[in-house]
Amino acid sequence: MDNLKEIFVEKCQIPAEYHLNPFPFHQTNYLINGELRKWEGEYNEVLSPIYVKEGENYTRTIGSYPLMGEKEALEALDAAVAAYNHGNGEWPSMTVEQRIGCIRNFVMMMQEQRDIIVNLLMWEIGKSRADSEKEFDRTVDYINDTIEALKQLDRTSSRFTISQHIIAQIRRAPLGVVLCMGPFNYPLNETFTTLIPALIMGNCVIFKPPKLGVLLHAPLLKAFQSAFPKGVVNTIYGEGEKVITPIMQSGKVDVFAFIGTSRVADILKKQHPQPHRLKSVLGLDAKNPGIVLKDADLQNAVNECVLGALSFNGQRCTAIKIIFVHEDIAETFAAMMVEAVEKLKIGLPWTKGVNLTPLPEENKAEFLHDLIDDAVSKGAKLMNPNGGQSHLSLFFPAILFNVKKGMKLWDKEQFGPVIPIATYTSIEEPLNYVVESNYGQQAAIFGKDPKELARLIDVLVNQVCRVNVNSQCQRGPDDFPFTGRKDSAEATLSVSDALRVFSIRTLVSTKENDTNKEIVRQILKEDLSNFLNTDFIL
Question: Hey, where are the domains in the chain?
């Protein structure tokens, strides 16, 4: 506890390169209809998970952002609707090559803001410097990979198909107006994994940054303004009930792209007056299990489970959130987990070699303590000596052994640094857990026997959407499909899948006769249509 209290320091003890500039970081502008408008209303104070000492007290305020209301939300919506113009707007009417050019211009301007965005990631959500840099760079890579994937998709679509004397060209067309809402744990990357493919396919977008991780989008507003026609990208800020509800109730949103909880997703989807017309792209809750078989390589299993459970403090939907271990090796496994976790370094995001950083969610420590107390009161054992120690936003990981059904940790997603370990005698026990779970994103299995692993794979692939063998649960690489069953997801994201999610197959066809052939030839020869063409993007 004394060590935790020493982590938060005075501003003069923080290296100058990690100071926010400007400080405080007050966001006064917002983007609607191609205009960077100055906000004249109320602001929301941004509190950092990093407490800075000021004598005997602490300060956390690092900036503010606009608290917009229904009026501004509907203005953003109207701008997107007008820009799309039933598919006749400038942006959806562009050729694929033209839209790619705009995205490339945006990426160039985005890269100029790398340092400030990385710094804001550290200050706003407590993400380590290494992970913040990785998130930014991975996002740039994702955009560039999306461009290449679209070029390949368009090349395939540039040819004609003839079937049963019908000539047709099949391409993908945009869907309309997209509402994008990303999560706080990957506020840049996860937001852009929906925002960028939605844009590049010709849709017009309204996006609301997550409640935590708002300011880091501010340096990109000018890039959005410069790179895209007016109304194509519009930003809104504030309380969801005031800005999202009127947008959804309008019925003018065609696609809802949301990464968060299933509870919130259900509330927002029900607000749309024609839900059958609303396409949803959702990344939601998860309670991914790790299953350690009797013959597993314990050192590898421990390494992967620690990484899987505690990367970014376990604040990932893809984190391993409960570990089932065969009873014959359970105590050995738990002891090895304790040894590995107790070696982890907790500190400020820019601390060299840091593994654990401050938690950005308010009252998160109290929530985690409640889970621990509930488990211990019902027979679980807190294994590690430092487990559950906390100070302000700092929380050292807790390992709970002998977690069972009836405890909150059994089926509640902790989304933080608490590792529940359950023992089993029959492999049917963890398999039944997966079957009965409301979630179905991923699972990790650890073992050596190919026959046993193959049997588990064949069961698990019908319950979850990714089975990781002798490795942690994770999203990447970004060209792999990312989705889930049950309450964990709707639709599939990846570099290529996202292009399909935010578009629809559309075709132009005609009967195969001389007159129609000549019409098609003239359209192609004179380059009269952006849709009906055989241009090949290099």
Answer: 2-283, 288-488
Quick: pLDDT tens for 212-260.
999 999 999 999 999 999 999 999 999 999 999 999 999 999 999 999 9
Residue range 459-472, pLDDT digits in tens: 999 999 999 999 99
Tokens 């949803």 -> residue: 280
The token pair that represents 493 in the structure block: 């994201």
- The SS3 call for residue 160 is coil
For residues 437 and 376, the answer to whether their CB atoms sit within 8 Å is no
C-alpha to C-alpha distances, 185 to 173, 349, 532, nearest whole angstrom = 32, 14, 42
Angle, to 10 degrees, between the axis of helix 298-310 and the axis of helix 330-342? Answer: 50
Q: What pLDDT is recorded for position 536?
A: 86
- Collapsing DSSP to helix, strand or coil, 174 comes out as strand
**Overall CATH class of domain 288-488:** alpha beta
Q: What is the pLDDT of residue 130?
A: 97
User: What was the pLDDT predicted at 106?
Assistant: 98
Give the list of residues 6+ apart from residue 56 with CB closer than 8 angstroms, or none.
none
**Which residues touch 206 (CB under 8 Å, ≥6 apart)?**
76, 77, 80, 177, 178, 179, 180, 234, 235, 236, 247, 253
Q: Is 428 left (phi over 0), alpha (psi -120 to 50) or beta?
A: alpha
Q: In terms of C-beta density within 10 A (0-12 exposed, 13-18 middle, 19 or more buried), how is residue 462 classed?
A: exposed
2-283: CATH architecture: 3-Layer(aba) Sandwich (3.40)
d(CA 308, CA 294): 20
Residue ranges in 235-286 assigned as alpha helix (H): 240-249, 262-270
* pLDDT (tens digit per residue) in 137-168: 999 999 999 999 999 999 999 999 999 999 99
Mention every residue, 6+ apart, whose C-beta is less than 8 A from residue 526. Answer: none
In the three-class reduction of DSSP (H, G, I as helix; E, B as strand; rest coil), residue 445 is classed as: strand
Residue 535's pLDDT band (boundaries 50, 70, 90)? Answer: confident
Radius of gyration of the CA atoms of the chain, in A:
25
How do beta strands 25-26 and 57-66 pair? parallel
**Using CA atoms, how far apart are residues 294 and 332, in angstroms rounded to an integer?**
11
Residue 534 vs residue 199, higher pLDDT: 199
Q: Which helix (H) or strand (E) holds 490?
A: strand 489-490
Question: How many whole angstroms from its chain centre is CA 503?
Answer: 20
pLDDT at 537: 87
Mean pLDDT, residues 104-133 taken together = 98
Half-sphere exposure for 311 (CA within 13 Å, toward CB):
20
Number of H helices, E strands in the chain: 18, 25
* Residue 503, phi-psi category: left (phi > 0), alpha (psi -120 to 50), beta (remainder): beta
